[in-house]
Amino acid sequence: MNSIFKAVQVLKTPSAALMRRGFATHTSGLAPAALKLKTGQSFKGQSFGADQSSFGEAVFTTSLVGYPESMTDPSYTGQILVFTQPLIGNYGVPGQTLDEFGLSKYFESDKIQVQGIVVNDYATHYSHWTAVESLGQWCQRQNIPAITGVDTRALTQLLRDQGSTLAQLAVGADAAESAKLSFPDPNAENLVAKVSTKVPLHFNPEGDVKIAVIDCGVKQNILRCLTKRGANVTVLPWNYDINKVKDQFDGLFISNGPGSPSTCTETVQHLRTAIDTWNKPIFGICMGNLLLGMAAGLDVYKLPFGNRGHNQPALNVDTGLCYITSQNHGYALQDEAMPTGWKKLFVNANDGSNEGIQHESKPIFSVQFHPEAKGGPQDTEYLFDQFLEQVRAIKSVSFQPAIEAQQASAYA
């Protein structure tokens, strides 16, 4: 009995060696790297990605899972992504597999979109049934720099307090370089034009309703959420004038996208005309919410550090229900005074920022969060059902008079 008691005591009091946390990164052979902020702070680590440096806006995400989806999200174009989740890379990277609609099953686009990634502990060894390569191999193959060994808690607190900051992810000799740097601002560019399709793309041509998607950087799972609900989807360039072909479609969708919405003045003008003249459903997500709001007459502002993660609470102002949502944006609508005919639809329960708007008499609405979130949560995916229900209802109403007119002419 006494020996059993002693054994239990040993288990309750682990040795110092057991209490020391081991790291998944095997640092031997890795080149030096550093994240250098425009505000002067520098975080040193080791490179496990491409052997090249890059510039971008340093932002952080609180997502616990889904790094392949986040890194391929076009909304992250121009940004250096900091993961607050300490261990990254442990399930590797899947292959590029397409679903029945020709959409990527595991990625949100056909390449890595971020300028670089910053992690605390990169898992050199990975394990997952879909994995075909490591995170490091993927970054190297696509020429994306990556740094491990960074105190991402301290870095996140810094970005939270001073706001998202321009930065350089320096690799190799650049990491030790102390010369003064010039930090280009990606938000000064039209990043939407950079990621948008150049030609129309078609998915699920057998669908019963035709949806035009204005591509500001659309995620693959958004297209999947439309096609799997029976929609015939046509993806159009960001500045395409939908009003010229409005009779060819039953509904309009405006997608997510990167950078500042102020660079998309052409899209805003087209949407302003569509709101006034097109009596069909319109739905927008993320950048789509900002552009629709601007078309309605609202201004936008830059959030200090944005909302990025899978755990943002969005409160429906009509029902009082609060949903946990996935988000990735650095701008928001100024909704203190709503334009005539418009109302707030959702607000962020954390910071009070706008999370959605709705027209009071027309089937037009948008949300700032991502109801299609891959990596979760999926609590608000019902919004796609709501949109397509409106599309089908209005199509059936407008279709009936056409049938009656045809019958009348046949018996005339």
TrEMBL record:
Q: What keywords sit in the KW lines? A: Amino-acid biosynthesis, ATP-binding, Glutamine amidotransferase, Ligase, Nucleotide-binding
Q: Catalyzes what?
A: hydrogencarbonate + L-glutamine + 2 ATP + H2O = carbamoyl phosphate + L-glutamate + 2 ADP + phosphate + 2 H(+); L-glutamine + H2O = L-glutamate + NH4(+)
Extract the GO molecular function terms from the UniProt entry.
ATP binding; carbamoyl-phosphate synthase (glutamine-hydrolyzing) activity
Enzyme Commission no: 6.3.5.5
Gene Ontology terms describing biological process: 'de novo' pyrimidine nucleobase biosynthetic process; glutamine metabolic process; L-arginine biosynthetic process
Q: Please describe the quaternary structure of this protein.
A: Heterodimer composed of 2 chains; the small (or glutamine) chain promotes the hydrolysis of glutamine to ammonia, which is used by the large (or ammonia) chain to synthesize carbamoyl phosphate.
The record's similarity note reads: Belongs to the CarA family.
| Cross-referenced PANTHER family | CARBAMOYL-PHOSPHATE SYNTHASE SMALL CHAIN, MULTIFUNCTIONAL TRYPTOPHAN BIOSYNTHESIS PROTEIN-RELATED
Provide the protein name.
Answer: Carbamoyl phosphate synthase arginine-specific small chain
Organism lineage reads as:
Eukaryota, Fungi, Fungi incertae sedis, Mucoromycota, Mucoromycotina
